[in-house]
Fold this sequence. Notes:
Largest sheet: 4 strands, antiparallel
Distance between the termini: 130 Å
Shape: elongated
Order of helices and strands: EEEHEEEEHEHH
Radius of gyration: 34 Å
Amino acid sequence: MAKPQGKNRRRAPREPKEFEEEVIQIDRVTRVVKGGRRLRFRATVVVGNKKGKVGLGVGKSTEVQGAIQKAISQAKKSLITVPMAGQTIPHRVKLKYKSAHLLLMPACPGTGIIAGGPLRKIIELSGVEDVLSKSLGNNNKLTNSQAAIRALSQLQEIPWLKKAEPKTPNAKEEKKPAAKETQASSKAKKPVKKAAPKKESPKK
């Protein structure tokens, strides 16, 4: 019997990836050697799990796909943990790296990610949902990406900004019947005073 071919074959379900990948930029770079110029590709990739971990990697190869794979493996080796206060960053950060100037500020819930270019992709994959940012320097994507990773690595946790543990909704409801029971039991324990019989005056 011949094995079924083509559409009849069932593919095994793929396992969900732990990290999401985003390609920021692919450049063609040349290197002058003795025999002429050597052409290669440089890929800049960011990976993250949207739960506080993000990393940046740069890879070079003669093929685009090979450069992307190298960049992904390097990004996974250089992961950083981003502390968060709810859905935003805990405090303001201002950073100068080479010719890039970045400013990150916490925002109220519902603001969203106010950022553009590679900074937006890095913040999204880090898991931050509300933040204000401004790029004040160079527009180079690689430099801005490296500056964004350095700015996020400078964030520190602030203990009093951590969310308080949510209270159970039935906590108050459980207390109320207990109070009623105590009142009922106290009423039951109190002895009932009987009225003393009236003394009849003797008839003359």
